[in-house]
Amino acid sequence: MKTFKLPILIVLVALFAACTGSKKLAKQAGKLDAGGMYAEAAELYLQSAVRNANNVDAKVGLKKTGQQLLDAKLGEFFKAANVGSDPMVAVDAYLAAKTWADRAKGAGVALVIPDHYTADFQTAKGAALVQLYAEGQALLAAKDFNGAQARFNSIAALEPGYKDASSLQAIAYLEPLYQSASAAMVQGQYRAAAADFDRVLARNATYKDAATLRTECITKGRVAVAVLQGNSGMRKQATKTPALQAMAISALAGLNDPFISVVDRDDLQRLLDEQKLNMSGMVDENSTVEAGKLLGAQVVLVCTLVDYREETGTLVHSSREAYQGIPVETLNETTGLKETTTRYKAVRYTENELENKAIISFNYKLVNLETGEVLLSQVVDKTGQDKTNYAVYDGDVKALYPKVNGAVSTDSRARRDLTALFGAPQTATDAKVLGSDLLRNTTGQMAQDVQRVIMGKLQ
């Protein structure tokens, strides 16, 4: 018996279903047409022809009922164009008829729109364009920008390039954004204002003085942040405290937020040294406000390192029991044929484990220097760790079987787990690398939290 490959069979089944569905739709359409419901019949004939392009009955039916439906739609257009008072109603009626004709054409059936209808449409379209343009101008003058934009959008859809409609359309879109940005700027909402100016400039880079005002928003709205080292009183953390400060400064700068500026670390240390606040750059609660103001900052971020450890683990070796499978060839006395069986020999392999770890604990405060308000205060406790667990064996790893409950196990999953140990990575991430990652990740999250608070409370 001849067999089909599965993909071919699936295609054939799909084609059969499509043909069957197409015939059923065409049959239903025929009944509707017989009952005088040509519009509904035309839609079903269209679906039938789309499902199966070779369904002749569907195409014949669509040609007949589809033309009837098209003629009815053209009749609505004729009435609107010659009796109605709104040219847009006529335009919409014609476009509905044209859309139906295009759908039928997509199914392989050409319907006819007489030339005189096309000529009448051009007349109606001309009148509609004049009306839309006049309405759009009037709405612009009345500062009804949404209404104006809707009119000019309609013009663009009907005839791109009509007069200066595209320019007026742009104004209808840009002007409310410009005015919204200007109002937000007056209210001191510089970040929101800049966002609206950005939308204006994305559409028109030279619109009025939007570029200049955006720059002014950033200048006036920018918040200067000084990052200071808090004094935890723990000498053993003193060597790592500058690293926390440096990573915090880097994380804030890495936000690439034009509304947040970070006091340069070199300038920070120089000014602190000049004022003899502390040669290490550390400040206590009483000197925080003084230090921040000297640095020209509006807010100060005080980071206090409480604990930092990099712990390199010790490689632990454990001797484990397993079995090595040894093939043994024997003679079957009954059949006289050679057979291979497996004999299991107890062996030992070495399992190794190593875990490196880094631990960090710090707290930070974000203080508004103008009011003294603590805007944000958080404690961060994080641990980073990496572990390796692998095995080594002098013999053939593929011949090993695990020992389970004191006996050899031939279970495939147990063997896979044992084999995986011999292929596992033999190194763990260095503790110093784990520590650097901890500093980077925790200060990165801190920077995002600081940005969120600044946006919500100061901008």
Q: Which class of secondary structure composition applies to the elements? A: alpha/beta
Number of strands: 9
Distance between the termini: 79 Å
Counted up, domains total 4
Low-confidence stretches: 1-18, 277-282
How large is the share of residues in beta strands? Answer: 15-25%
What shape does the CA trace take? flat
Helical residue percent band: 40-55%
Give average pLDDT, whole number: 88
Total count of helical runs of at least 4 residues: 14
Order of helices and strands: HHHHHHHHHEHEHEHEEEEEEHH
Characterize the structure shown.
With 459 residues, the chain is of the alpha/beta class. The protein has 4 domains: 105 residues, no CATH class; 80 residues, no CATH class; 84 residues, no CATH class; 122 residues, no CATH class. The protein contains 14 helices and 9 strands. Strands 1, 2, 3, 4, 5, 6, 7, 8 and 9 form a 9-stranded mixed β-sheet that branches. A hairpin with a 5-residue loop joins β6 and β7. α1 packs antiparallel against α2, α7 packs antiparallel against α8 and α8 runs antiparallel to α9. The longest helix has 29 residues. The N terminus is likely disordered.
